[in-house]
Amino acid sequence: MALAVDALRHGWPIAVECAAQGGGVAETRILLPVETAIAPGARAEFLLISAARAATLKLGNQRAAAAPHAPVLMAGVEPFDLSAALPVADPALDLASPMKGPFRAAPLPWHEAAVAALELARIAGILPAFMVDPTGAGEAQDVSPADLDAFADPARLAIATRARLPVAAAEDTEIVAFRSPDDLREHVALIIGQQNGDRVPLVRLHSECLTGDILGSLKCDCGPQLDAALAAMAEEAARGGWGVLLYLRQEGRGIGLLNKMRAYRLQDQGFDTVDANRRLGLPEEARDFPVAARMLDLLNIREIRLMTNNPAKVTALEQAGTHIVERVAHQLPANPHNARYLDTKRDRAGHLLR
Q: What is the C-alpha to C-alpha distance for residues 353 and 309, in angstroms, rounded to an integer?
C-alpha cells in the first residue's frame, strides 16, 4: 500500500487487481496518474475519473455514468495523451481550456478496483484521474482493494511513544504519538492536566490545517478553534479536570494540502467549499473519524465531552464505540474572509452554527 501511494506521488503507474467477472480469471488494470505522470509518450483510450468530475464534463446523463458517486470510465474522439488528459482531470484549468470533448462514458466492469484507485489518489493527495492501460507507462506497482482495506483498518494504529510536553496553553501536558503500518502520517494527542478516570475529559478532534494552524489563514476558523480548545482544556485542568486534543493528520478534510489549495483556487472563481471539492472530483468530507476513536481507546478513554459543532463527528465516534456524554459547542466569531465558509458549513454540511 505504501509503495502504491509512493508510486502515485512519483508519477509511476499502479497495477490494480480486479475481481474476476462471471467466474472468469482475475486480471489487472494499469493505471497512470494523470497529474503526476512522468511518461511523456503515454497514450490511452480511456480515462478513469470520479462521478463528480464526470458530471462537470456533462457525462452524468449517459447510462454508463448514471450511478451516483460511482467512478466513470470515459473516452474521447481520439486516444488521450497527457496534454489532453490533464485539462480533463484538473478543474482549475476549465477556464483556460473550456472546449473539451465530446466525451462518452463506457461500461466499467471493474468497479471495486476503480473505487480503490480513486481512494488511493485521495490518500496520495493527487487529482483522482488515471489513464487506463496506457502505452508507454513503464513498470507498475501492484496493489489490490484488499490492501486498501487493511490500510484503513483503525485497529492497526498503535501508540509509538509519549513524553511530557509543556505548551503555552498549559505546562502540565503530555504528548502521545500514534503510528500505523504503511501510513506515513503520525497522529498525536495532547493530554492536558492529569488523566483522571473519575472525570469525563473535554475532548477536541482537530484536523491538521497548515494554513490556519501555522500561517494564520483567515479563510477558515481552524487556528482560532485550535487555540480556543487548548485554552478551554487548560481551564478545565485548573478546575481539577482534564482535556485531550487529538491532532489528526488529515489536511483539507482528508483531501490533502495541494488539493485544498486547488479548492481555494476554485473558491476564488466563485465556488463554495462544497462545490469546489466536487469539481475536483473529491469528497467534501473524507476525514477518518474511526481513527480518532481508536486513539481514545488506546488512551483508555471510553466517555468524553466532545467540543464540536459537527453532528457527524458525534455520530461517527458513537458508531465506533465512544460514548459522548455531552456535545460542547465550539463556535468562534466570523471574519470577512471566512463568513461564507462558515455559512457553507452550516447550510450545506449541517454544522450547528448560529
A: 7
Map 49-88 to HEC letters. Answer: ECHHHHHHCCCCCCHHHCCCCCCEEEEEEEEEEHHHHHHH
Q: List CB contacts of 225: < 8 A, sequence separation 6 or more.
A: 204, 206, 330, 332
User: Which residue type sits at 188?
Assistant: V
Backbone angles phi, psi at 348, to 5 degrees: -115, -20
What single-letter amino acid sits at 221? Answer: D
Are the beta carbons of 80 and 100 closer than 8 angstroms?
no
Contact 255, 122 (CB under 8 A): yes
pLDDT of residue 25: 66
- The grid cell for 86 is 490533464
3 state SS of 112: helix
d(CA 6, CA 183): 11
* Residue 152: band (very low, low, confident or very high) from pLDDT cuts 50, 70, 90: confident
Burial of 218 (C-beta count, 10 Å sphere; 0-12/13-18/19+): middle
Q: Tell me: pLDDT of 101 over 80.
A: no
Residue for grid cell 483556460: 96
10 in Cβ contact with 149 (< 8 Å): no
- At CA 86, angle to CA 285 and CA 80, rounded to 5? 125
User: For residues 317 and 208, what is the distance between their CA atoms, to the nearest angstrom?
Assistant: 18
Is residue 28 within 8 A of residue 15, CB to CB? The reply is yes
Please state the rounded mean pLDDT for residues 84-100: 84
Instruction: Judge whether 283 and 332 are in contact, CB under 8 Å.
Output: no
In this prediction the pTM is 0.90
Q: In 90-191, which ranges are continuous DSSP H helix?
A: 111-124, 145-152
